[in-house]
Design brief:
Layout: H1 11-31, H2 41-49, H3 60-72, H4 93-105, H5 117-133, E1 140-144, H6 147-161, E2 170-175, H7 181-188, E3 196-199, H8 209-221, E4 225-232, H9 244-254, E5 257-262, E6 286-290, H10 291-294, E7 302-306, H11 326-329, H12 348-357, H13 360-382, E8 387-389, E9 397-402, H14 410-427, E10 433-437, E11 440-446, H15 454-479
Parallel strand pairs: 2-3, 2-4, 4-5, 5-6
Antiparallel strand pairs: 1-7, 6-7, 8-9, 9-11, 10-11
Helix pairs in contact: 1-3, 4-12, 5-12, 6-7, 8-9, 14-15
Bound molecules: pyridoxal-5'-phosphate (PLP).
Length: 480
Protein backbone atom coordinates (compact mmCIF):
# COMPACT_ATOMS: atom_id res chain seq x y z
CA UNK A 1 0.00 0.00 0.00
CA UNK A 2 2.91 2.35 0.58
CA UNK A 3 3.47 2.46 -3.17
CA UNK A 4 0.41 4.73 -3.32
CA UNK A 5 1.92 7.36 -1.03
CA UNK A 6 3.31 10.25 -3.02
CA UNK A 7 6.96 10.61 -2.05
CA UNK A 8 10.53 10.34 -3.24
CA UNK A 9 10.17 6.63 -3.99
CA UNK A 10 6.97 6.91 -6.00
CA UNK A 11 7.65 9.89 -8.24
CA UNK A 12 7.53 7.69 -11.35
CA UNK A 13 4.25 6.04 -10.30
CA UNK A 14 2.80 9.53 -9.70
CA UNK A 15 3.88 10.70 -13.15
CA UNK A 16 2.37 7.64 -14.88
CA UNK A 17 -0.91 7.73 -12.92
CA UNK A 18 -1.56 11.41 -13.38
CA UNK A 19 -0.57 11.28 -17.05
CA UNK A 20 -3.01 8.43 -17.61
CA UNK A 21 -5.79 10.47 -15.99
CA UNK A 22 -4.87 13.59 -17.95
CA UNK A 23 -4.92 11.61 -21.19
CA UNK A 24 -8.43 10.30 -20.48
CA UNK A 25 -9.74 13.77 -19.78
CA UNK A 26 -7.97 15.23 -22.82
CA UNK A 27 -9.55 12.55 -25.03
CA UNK A 28 -12.95 13.30 -23.52
CA UNK A 29 -12.63 17.05 -24.03
CA UNK A 30 -11.46 16.57 -27.60
CA UNK A 31 -14.38 14.35 -28.56
CA UNK A 32 -17.38 15.62 -26.56
CA UNK A 33 -19.85 16.61 -29.28
CA UNK A 34 -22.48 17.83 -26.80
CA UNK A 35 -22.25 19.41 -23.34
CA UNK A 36 -24.16 16.50 -21.81
CA UNK A 37 -25.38 13.04 -22.72
CA UNK A 38 -28.80 13.55 -21.14
CA UNK A 39 -28.18 10.73 -18.62
CA UNK A 40 -30.91 10.62 -15.98
CA UNK A 41 -30.60 10.20 -12.21
CA UNK A 42 -32.40 6.86 -12.59
CA UNK A 43 -29.81 5.67 -15.07
CA UNK A 44 -26.75 6.85 -13.13
CA UNK A 45 -27.74 6.14 -9.53
CA UNK A 46 -27.77 2.31 -9.76
CA UNK A 47 -24.35 2.34 -11.42
CA UNK A 48 -22.85 4.34 -8.57
CA UNK A 49 -24.81 2.46 -5.91
CA UNK A 50 -23.58 -0.81 -7.43
CA UNK A 51 -19.93 -0.10 -6.63
CA UNK A 52 -18.64 -2.06 -3.64
CA UNK A 53 -16.40 0.50 -1.94
CA UNK A 54 -14.95 -2.19 0.29
CA UNK A 55 -13.55 -4.07 -2.71
CA UNK A 56 -10.87 -1.94 -4.36
CA UNK A 57 -9.69 -2.61 -7.90
CA UNK A 58 -5.99 -2.25 -7.00
CA UNK A 59 -5.35 -0.94 -10.48
CA UNK A 60 -5.35 2.65 -11.75
CA UNK A 61 -6.31 1.77 -15.32
CA UNK A 62 -9.26 -0.29 -14.11
CA UNK A 63 -10.37 2.52 -11.78
CA UNK A 64 -10.20 4.99 -14.66
CA UNK A 65 -12.17 2.61 -16.90
CA UNK A 66 -14.81 2.43 -14.18
CA UNK A 67 -14.79 6.23 -13.76
CA UNK A 68 -15.43 6.60 -17.48
CA UNK A 69 -18.72 4.73 -17.02
CA UNK A 70 -19.69 6.40 -13.76
CA UNK A 71 -18.75 9.99 -14.38
CA UNK A 72 -16.63 11.07 -17.33
CA UNK A 73 -19.01 9.85 -20.02
CA UNK A 74 -22.05 11.63 -18.59
CA UNK A 75 -20.51 14.67 -16.89
CA UNK A 76 -21.76 18.15 -17.77
CA UNK A 77 -18.95 19.75 -19.77
CA UNK A 78 -18.59 23.48 -19.27
CA UNK A 79 -15.98 23.78 -22.00
CA UNK A 80 -18.56 22.96 -24.67
CA UNK A 81 -19.79 26.03 -26.59
CA UNK A 82 -23.41 25.02 -26.05
CA UNK A 83 -23.17 24.89 -22.27
CA UNK A 84 -24.95 28.18 -21.63
CA UNK A 85 -26.50 27.64 -18.21
CA UNK A 86 -25.00 28.76 -14.91
CA UNK A 87 -22.08 30.95 -13.85
CA UNK A 88 -19.50 28.30 -14.77
CA UNK A 89 -16.63 29.20 -17.02
CA UNK A 90 -14.42 27.07 -19.20
CA UNK A 91 -11.06 27.00 -17.46
CA UNK A 92 -7.67 28.19 -18.73
CA UNK A 93 -4.84 25.68 -19.00
CA UNK A 94 -2.29 27.57 -16.82
CA UNK A 95 -4.83 27.43 -13.97
CA UNK A 96 -5.38 23.69 -14.45
CA UNK A 97 -1.63 23.25 -14.30
CA UNK A 98 -1.62 25.26 -11.07
CA UNK A 99 -4.35 22.95 -9.73
CA UNK A 100 -2.22 19.88 -10.46
CA UNK A 101 0.77 21.42 -8.70
CA UNK A 102 -1.15 22.62 -5.65
CA UNK A 103 -2.86 19.31 -4.99
CA UNK A 104 0.39 17.35 -5.30
CA UNK A 105 2.45 19.66 -3.07
CA UNK A 106 -0.66 20.07 -0.90
CA UNK A 107 0.36 23.20 1.00
CA UNK A 108 -2.14 24.43 3.54
CA UNK A 109 -2.45 28.17 3.64
CA UNK A 110 -3.46 28.52 7.26
CA UNK A 111 0.05 29.05 8.58
CA UNK A 112 3.44 30.07 7.30
CA UNK A 113 4.96 26.83 8.56
CA UNK A 114 2.60 24.85 6.28
CA UNK A 115 3.04 26.92 3.16
CA UNK A 116 6.04 29.30 3.14
CA UNK A 117 6.15 30.86 -0.33
CA UNK A 118 2.49 29.90 -0.88
CA UNK A 119 1.47 32.44 1.76
CA UNK A 120 3.50 35.16 0.08
CA UNK A 121 2.06 34.32 -3.34
CA UNK A 122 -1.48 34.54 -1.94
CA UNK A 123 -0.65 37.87 -0.28
CA UNK A 124 0.74 39.27 -3.52
CA UNK A 125 -2.46 38.32 -5.35
CA UNK A 126 -4.62 39.89 -2.65
CA UNK A 127 -2.57 43.11 -2.92
CA UNK A 128 -2.81 42.95 -6.72
CA UNK A 129 -6.60 42.51 -6.63
CA UNK A 130 -7.03 45.27 -4.03
CA UNK A 131 -4.89 47.50 -6.25
CA UNK A 132 -7.08 46.75 -9.27
CA UNK A 133 -10.12 47.67 -7.19
CA UNK A 134 -8.41 50.79 -5.82
CA UNK A 135 -9.03 50.05 -2.16
CA UNK A 136 -6.05 52.06 -0.93
CA UNK A 137 -2.88 51.40 1.09
CA UNK A 138 -4.52 49.80 4.14
CA UNK A 139 -6.35 47.12 2.13
CA UNK A 140 -6.08 43.40 2.72
CA UNK A 141 -8.10 40.23 2.25
CA UNK A 142 -7.93 36.49 1.95
CA UNK A 143 -8.82 33.74 -0.50
CA UNK A 144 -12.04 31.86 0.26
CA UNK A 145 -13.93 28.86 -1.08
CA UNK A 146 -16.40 30.98 -3.07
CA UNK A 147 -18.70 33.96 -3.20
CA UNK A 148 -20.97 32.58 -0.51
CA UNK A 149 -18.14 32.43 2.00
CA UNK A 150 -16.74 35.80 0.89
CA UNK A 151 -20.13 37.44 1.39
CA UNK A 152 -20.51 35.77 4.80
CA UNK A 153 -17.13 36.99 5.97
CA UNK A 154 -17.72 40.53 4.70
CA UNK A 155 -21.05 40.70 6.51
CA UNK A 156 -19.49 39.28 9.68
CA UNK A 157 -17.01 42.17 9.63
CA UNK A 158 -19.82 44.65 8.95
CA UNK A 159 -21.83 43.26 11.85
CA UNK A 160 -18.87 43.60 14.21
CA UNK A 161 -18.08 47.12 12.96
CA UNK A 162 -21.70 48.13 13.63
CA UNK A 163 -20.72 47.75 17.30
CA UNK A 164 -24.18 46.91 18.57
CA UNK A 165 -25.12 44.00 20.83
CA UNK A 166 -28.73 44.41 19.83
CA UNK A 167 -28.72 42.08 16.81
CA UNK A 168 -32.47 42.49 16.38
CA UNK A 169 -31.94 46.11 15.33
CA UNK A 170 -29.38 45.37 12.61
CA UNK A 171 -30.42 45.59 8.97
CA UNK A 172 -28.69 44.68 5.69
CA UNK A 173 -29.99 46.46 2.61
CA UNK A 174 -29.57 44.61 -0.66
CA UNK A 175 -31.38 44.74 -3.97
CA UNK A 176 -34.27 42.38 -4.50
CA UNK A 177 -32.15 40.51 -7.09
CA UNK A 178 -29.04 40.20 -4.92
CA UNK A 179 -27.60 36.73 -4.33
CA UNK A 180 -29.37 34.50 -1.79
CA UNK A 181 -26.10 34.08 0.13
CA UNK A 182 -26.84 37.51 1.63
CA UNK A 183 -29.93 36.08 3.33
CA UNK A 184 -28.10 32.92 4.30
CA UNK A 185 -25.30 35.00 5.85
CA UNK A 186 -27.80 37.07 7.84
CA UNK A 187 -29.21 33.86 9.28
CA UNK A 188 -25.76 32.46 10.11
CA UNK A 189 -24.84 35.77 11.74
CA UNK A 190 -27.76 35.51 14.11
CA UNK A 191 -29.76 38.33 12.57
CA UNK A 192 -33.48 37.91 12.71
CA UNK A 193 -35.98 37.09 9.99
CA UNK A 194 -36.58 40.27 8.04
CA UNK A 195 -33.08 41.60 8.71
CA UNK A 196 -32.35 41.75 4.98
CA UNK A 197 -34.32 44.62 3.51
CA UNK A 198 -34.96 44.08 -0.21
CA UNK A 199 -34.40 47.29 -2.15
CA UNK A 200 -36.42 47.52 -5.37
CA UNK A 201 -34.70 47.54 -8.76
CA UNK A 202 -35.66 49.38 -11.92
CA UNK A 203 -36.56 47.78 -15.26
CA UNK A 204 -32.80 47.43 -15.84
CA UNK A 205 -32.54 45.26 -12.67
CA UNK A 206 -30.18 47.76 -11.00
CA UNK A 207 -30.85 48.93 -7.47
CA UNK A 208 -32.94 52.10 -7.39
CA UNK A 209 -30.93 54.57 -5.33
CA UNK A 210 -34.01 56.63 -4.53
CA UNK A 211 -35.48 53.50 -2.97
CA UNK A 212 -32.22 52.82 -1.10
CA UNK A 213 -32.20 56.37 0.30
CA UNK A 214 -35.81 55.87 1.36
CA UNK A 215 -35.02 52.56 3.14
CA UNK A 216 -31.95 54.01 4.90
CA UNK A 217 -34.02 56.93 6.12
CA UNK A 218 -36.76 54.57 7.27
CA UNK A 219 -34.24 52.44 9.22
CA UNK A 220 -32.98 55.50 11.07
CA UNK A 221 -36.52 56.76 11.72
CA UNK A 222 -37.52 53.37 13.14
CA UNK A 223 -34.48 53.21 15.45
CA UNK A 224 -32.87 50.42 13.41
CA UNK A 225 -29.17 50.18 12.45
CA UNK A 226 -28.40 49.83 8.72
CA UNK A 227 -25.25 47.77 9.32
CA UNK A 228 -24.46 47.17 5.63
CA UNK A 229 -25.57 47.89 2.11
CA UNK A 230 -24.77 45.11 -0.35
CA UNK A 231 -24.37 46.43 -3.88
CA UNK A 232 -24.15 43.76 -6.55
CA UNK A 233 -21.72 44.24 -9.41
CA UNK A 234 -23.15 41.62 -11.75
CA UNK A 235 -26.37 40.08 -10.49
CA UNK A 236 -26.63 36.34 -10.87
CA UNK A 237 -29.62 36.42 -13.17
CA UNK A 238 -29.20 39.59 -15.17
CA UNK A 239 -25.55 40.61 -14.86
CA UNK A 240 -26.83 44.05 -13.85
CA UNK A 241 -24.46 46.33 -11.95
CA UNK A 242 -25.92 48.47 -9.19
CA UNK A 243 -25.09 52.20 -9.41
CA UNK A 244 -21.95 52.04 -7.28
CA UNK A 245 -21.01 55.75 -7.00
CA UNK A 246 -24.49 56.78 -5.85
CA UNK A 247 -24.72 53.87 -3.41
CA UNK A 248 -21.25 54.72 -2.04
CA UNK A 249 -22.41 58.31 -1.52
CA UNK A 250 -25.44 57.15 0.48
CA UNK A 251 -23.33 54.76 2.58
CA UNK A 252 -20.93 57.60 3.39
CA UNK A 253 -23.85 59.82 4.41
CA UNK A 254 -25.35 57.20 6.74
CA UNK A 255 -22.06 55.76 7.98
CA UNK A 256 -23.05 52.36 6.62
CA UNK A 257 -20.61 49.63 5.60
CA UNK A 258 -20.61 49.16 1.82
CA UNK A 259 -20.07 45.63 0.59
CA UNK A 260 -19.81 45.13 -3.17
CA UNK A 261 -20.61 41.61 -4.28
CA UNK A 262 -18.59 41.45 -7.50
CA UNK A 263 -18.59 37.64 -7.60
CA UNK A 264 -19.62 37.79 -11.25
CA UNK A 265 -18.56 41.28 -12.36
CA UNK A 266 -14.99 41.01 -11.03
CA UNK A 267 -13.81 40.04 -14.53
CA UNK A 268 -14.23 43.74 -15.35
CA UNK A 269 -11.23 44.45 -13.10
CA UNK A 270 -9.03 43.14 -15.92
CA UNK A 271 -11.20 44.10 -18.88
CA UNK A 272 -9.36 46.32 -21.37
CA UNK A 273 -12.71 47.66 -22.66
CA UNK A 274 -15.16 47.75 -19.74
CA UNK A 275 -13.33 48.54 -16.50
CA UNK A 276 -15.34 51.77 -16.16
CA UNK A 277 -18.48 49.73 -15.41
CA UNK A 278 -17.01 49.15 -11.94
CA UNK A 279 -16.37 52.82 -11.22
CA UNK A 280 -17.23 53.46 -7.58
CA UNK A 281 -16.14 49.99 -6.39
CA UNK A 282 -13.01 51.64 -4.94
CA UNK A 283 -15.23 53.23 -2.27
CA UNK A 284 -16.32 49.86 -0.86
CA UNK A 285 -15.46 48.66 2.65
CA UNK A 286 -15.39 45.09 1.39
CA UNK A 287 -15.57 43.33 -1.97
CA UNK A 288 -16.29 39.75 -3.06
CA UNK A 289 -14.49 38.51 -6.16
CA UNK A 290 -15.00 35.06 -7.66
CA UNK A 291 -12.08 34.23 -9.91
CA UNK A 292 -13.91 30.97 -10.61
CA UNK A 293 -16.63 32.88 -12.43
CA UNK A 294 -15.13 35.52 -14.69
CA UNK A 295 -11.37 34.89 -14.46
CA UNK A 296 -11.71 31.42 -16.09
CA UNK A 297 -10.37 29.64 -12.99
CA UNK A 298 -11.31 26.14 -11.83
CA UNK A 299 -13.55 25.89 -8.75
CA UNK A 300 -12.72 26.96 -6.15
CA UNK A 301 -11.08 30.37 -6.33
CA UNK A 302 -12.53 33.41 -4.63
CA UNK A 303 -11.46 36.20 -2.30
CA UNK A 304 -12.84 38.76 0.09
CA UNK A 305 -11.05 42.10 0.10
CA UNK A 306 -11.34 44.87 2.69
CA UNK A 307 -10.43 48.55 2.64
CA UNK A 308 -9.06 48.42 6.21
CA UNK A 309 -6.92 45.41 7.10
CA UNK A 310 -7.65 46.00 10.79
CA UNK A 311 -11.28 44.89 10.29
CA UNK A 312 -10.09 41.36 9.54
CA UNK A 313 -9.30 41.02 13.26
CA UNK A 314 -12.94 40.05 13.73
CA UNK A 315 -12.04 36.68 12.20
CA UNK A 316 -8.92 36.21 14.34
CA UNK A 317 -8.48 33.53 17.00
CA UNK A 318 -5.20 32.34 18.41
CA UNK A 319 -4.56 28.68 19.13
CA UNK A 320 -1.46 27.64 21.00
CA UNK A 321 -0.85 24.72 18.69
CA UNK A 322 -1.18 26.71 15.47
CA UNK A 323 -0.91 30.50 15.52
CA UNK A 324 -0.10 31.67 19.04
CA UNK A 325 -0.42 35.41 19.67
CA UNK A 326 3.35 35.87 19.97
CA UNK A 327 3.68 35.11 16.24
CA UNK A 328 1.98 38.42 15.48
CA UNK A 329 4.78 40.36 17.19
CA UNK A 330 7.30 38.05 15.53
CA UNK A 331 5.69 39.13 12.22
CA UNK A 332 5.05 35.58 11.08
CA UNK A 333 2.41 35.75 8.35
CA UNK A 334 -0.30 33.29 9.31
CA UNK A 335 -3.24 33.66 6.93
CA UNK A 336 -5.51 31.75 9.34
CA UNK A 337 -5.59 34.98 11.37
CA UNK A 338 -7.77 36.46 8.60
CA UNK A 339 -9.80 33.47 7.45
CA UNK A 340 -13.00 31.66 8.45
CA UNK A 341 -11.30 28.45 7.40
CA UNK A 342 -8.37 26.69 9.05
CA UNK A 343 -6.87 24.13 6.67
CA UNK A 344 -7.14 25.86 3.32
CA UNK A 345 -6.25 25.08 -0.29
CA UNK A 346 -3.59 27.04 -2.14
CA UNK A 347 -6.15 28.15 -4.73
CA UNK A 348 -4.19 31.33 -5.31
CA UNK A 349 -1.60 29.34 -7.26
CA UNK A 350 -4.06 28.91 -10.15
CA UNK A 351 -4.50 32.64 -10.54
CA UNK A 352 -0.76 33.15 -10.16
CA UNK A 353 0.02 30.74 -13.01
CA UNK A 354 -2.68 32.37 -15.12
CA UNK A 355 -1.27 35.85 -14.65
CA UNK A 356 2.30 34.68 -15.20
CA UNK A 357 1.45 32.81 -18.43
CA UNK A 358 -1.42 34.82 -19.94
CA UNK A 359 -1.42 38.16 -18.15
CA UNK A 360 -4.35 40.17 -16.85
CA UNK A 361 -5.28 41.64 -20.25
CA UNK A 362 -5.47 38.13 -21.67
CA UNK A 363 -8.10 37.14 -19.13
CA UNK A 364 -9.93 40.46 -19.42
CA UNK A 365 -10.08 40.16 -23.22
CA UNK A 366 -11.74 36.75 -22.92
CA UNK A 367 -14.33 38.28 -20.59
CA UNK A 368 -14.84 41.18 -23.01
CA UNK A 369 -15.48 38.65 -25.79
CA UNK A 370 -18.35 37.03 -23.90
CA UNK A 371 -19.83 40.42 -23.04
CA UNK A 372 -19.69 41.32 -26.76
CA UNK A 373 -21.35 38.00 -27.55
CA UNK A 374 -24.16 38.74 -25.11
CA UNK A 375 -24.79 42.00 -26.93
CA UNK A 376 -25.05 40.12 -30.25
CA UNK A 377 -27.37 37.59 -28.60
CA UNK A 378 -29.53 40.38 -27.25
CA UNK A 379 -29.84 41.87 -30.73
CA UNK A 380 -30.82 38.46 -32.11
CA UNK A 381 -33.46 38.00 -29.42
CA UNK A 382 -34.82 41.54 -29.72
CA UNK A 383 -35.29 41.05 -33.46
CA UNK A 384 -36.94 37.63 -33.11
CA UNK A 385 -40.73 37.80 -32.64
CA UNK A 386 -40.72 34.30 -31.10
CA UNK A 387 -38.97 35.60 -27.97
CA UNK A 388 -39.34 38.21 -25.27
CA UNK A 389 -35.99 39.33 -23.81
CA UNK A 390 -36.02 40.75 -20.27
CA UNK A 391 -33.09 43.15 -19.98
CA UNK A 392 -30.36 44.58 -22.18
CA UNK A 393 -27.18 42.91 -20.84
CA UNK A 394 -24.42 44.83 -19.06
CA UNK A 395 -22.31 41.67 -18.74
CA UNK A 396 -22.85 38.28 -20.37
CA UNK A 397 -26.30 37.08 -19.33
CA UNK A 398 -29.46 36.90 -21.41
CA UNK A 399 -32.86 36.27 -19.83
CA UNK A 400 -35.66 35.59 -22.28
CA UNK A 401 -38.67 33.44 -22.95
CA UNK A 402 -40.40 31.85 -25.85
CA UNK A 403 -43.76 33.42 -26.58
CA UNK A 404 -45.86 31.18 -28.78
CA UNK A 405 -48.00 33.06 -31.29
CA UNK A 406 -51.01 30.86 -30.57
CA UNK A 407 -50.99 31.01 -26.74
CA UNK A 408 -51.92 33.99 -24.60
CA UNK A 409 -52.47 32.18 -21.29
CA UNK A 410 -49.42 33.13 -19.11
CA UNK A 411 -49.42 29.76 -17.31
CA UNK A 412 -49.36 27.96 -20.67
CA UNK A 413 -46.37 30.07 -21.78
CA UNK A 414 -44.64 29.22 -18.48
CA UNK A 415 -45.21 25.51 -19.05
CA UNK A 416 -43.90 25.65 -22.62
CA UNK A 417 -40.67 27.32 -21.46
CA UNK A 418 -40.19 24.93 -18.55
CA UNK A 419 -40.73 22.01 -20.90
CA UNK A 420 -38.28 23.38 -23.46
CA UNK A 421 -35.53 23.69 -20.84
CA UNK A 422 -36.11 20.18 -19.56
CA UNK A 423 -36.30 18.65 -23.02
CA UNK A 424 -33.11 20.41 -24.08
CA UNK A 425 -31.28 19.08 -21.01
CA UNK A 426 -32.58 15.57 -21.68
CA UNK A 427 -31.35 15.77 -25.27
CA UNK A 428 -27.92 16.97 -24.13
CA UNK A 429 -27.74 19.22 -27.23
CA UNK A 430 -27.38 22.32 -25.04
CA UNK A 431 -27.74 23.24 -21.39
CA UNK A 432 -29.57 26.45 -20.46
CA UNK A 433 -30.74 27.83 -17.13
CA UNK A 434 -34.04 29.26 -15.99
CA UNK A 435 -35.32 31.85 -13.58
CA UNK A 436 -38.41 33.88 -12.80
CA UNK A 437 -39.10 37.47 -13.80
CA UNK A 438 -42.14 39.14 -12.21
CA UNK A 439 -43.41 35.69 -11.26
CA UNK A 440 -43.18 34.24 -14.79
CA UNK A 441 -40.80 31.51 -15.96
CA UNK A 442 -37.94 32.66 -18.15
CA UNK A 443 -34.91 30.96 -19.67
CA UNK A 444 -31.37 32.14 -19.18
CA UNK A 445 -28.08 31.99 -21.07
CA UNK A 446 -25.01 32.77 -18.97
CA UNK A 447 -22.36 33.27 -21.64
CA UNK A 448 -18.86 32.63 -20.31
CA UNK A 449 -17.34 30.68 -23.16
CA UNK A 450 -15.51 32.74 -25.79
CA UNK A 451 -15.83 29.72 -28.13
CA UNK A 452 -19.61 30.11 -28.21
CA UNK A 453 -20.70 31.96 -31.36
CA UNK A 454 -23.78 33.93 -32.38
CA UNK A 455 -24.48 30.88 -34.58
CA UNK A 456 -24.59 28.68 -31.45
CA UNK A 457 -27.01 31.10 -29.83
CA UNK A 458 -29.27 31.14 -32.89
CA UNK A 459 -29.17 27.33 -33.11
CA UNK A 460 -30.04 26.88 -29.42
CA UNK A 461 -32.91 29.38 -29.75
CA UNK A 462 -34.26 27.28 -32.63
CA UNK A 463 -33.98 24.13 -30.50
CA UNK A 464 -35.87 25.86 -27.66
CA UNK A 465 -38.59 27.03 -30.02
CA UNK A 466 -38.83 23.52 -31.47
CA UNK A 467 -39.25 21.87 -28.05
CA UNK A 468 -41.78 24.48 -26.91
CA UNK A 469 -43.80 24.07 -30.11
CA UNK A 470 -43.76 20.31 -29.73
CA UNK A 471 -45.08 20.65 -26.18
CA UNK A 472 -47.81 23.04 -27.24
CA UNK A 473 -48.79 20.79 -30.16
CA UNK A 474 -49.04 17.80 -27.83
CA UNK A 475 -51.07 19.75 -25.24
CA UNK A 476 -53.47 20.82 -27.99
CA UNK A 477 -53.79 17.17 -29.08
CA UNK A 478 -54.49 16.13 -25.49
CA UNK A 479 -57.11 18.84 -25.12
CA UNK A 480 -58.96 17.92 -28.35
C1 LIG B 1 -23.65 37.65 -7.36
C2 LIG B 1 -23.24 36.35 -6.70
N1 LIG B 1 -22.77 36.38 -5.45
C3 LIG B 1 -22.41 35.27 -4.79
C4 LIG B 1 -22.49 34.04 -5.41
C5 LIG B 1 -22.09 32.80 -4.66
O1 LIG B 1 -20.87 32.35 -5.15
P1 LIG B 1 -20.36 30.85 -4.92
O2 LIG B 1 -21.28 29.99 -5.73
O3 LIG B 1 -18.97 30.88 -5.43
O4 LIG B 1 -20.45 30.55 -3.47
C6 LIG B 1 -22.97 33.95 -6.71
C7 LIG B 1 -23.11 32.65 -7.36
O5 LIG B 1 -23.62 32.51 -8.43
C8 LIG B 1 -23.35 35.15 -7.38
O6 LIG B 1 -23.82 35.12 -8.62
Amino acid sequence: MRSHLLNDLTAEHYRRSVTEGVERVAAKLATADRPFTGATVDALAPRIEGIDLDRPLHDTTAALDELEELYLRDAVYFHHPRYLAHLNCPVVIPAVLGEAVLSAVNSSLDTWDQSAGGTLIERRLIDWTAGRIGLGPAADGVFTSGGTQSNLQALLLAREEAKSDDLARLRILASEVSHFSVQKSAKLLGLGAGSVVPVPVGADKRMRTVALAHELERCVRDGLIPMAVVATAGTTDFGSIDPLPEIAGLCARYGTWLHVDAAYGCGLLVSPARRHLLDGIERADSVTVDYHKSFFQPVSSSAVLVRDAATLRHATYHADYLNPRRMVTERIPNQVDKSLQTTRRFDALKLWMTLRVMGADGIGSLFDEVCDLAREGWQLLAADPRFDVAVEPQLSTLVFRYIPAAVTDPAGIDRANLYARKALFASGDAVVAGTKVAGRHYLKFTLLNPETTAGDIAAVLDLIAGHAEQYLGESLDRAS
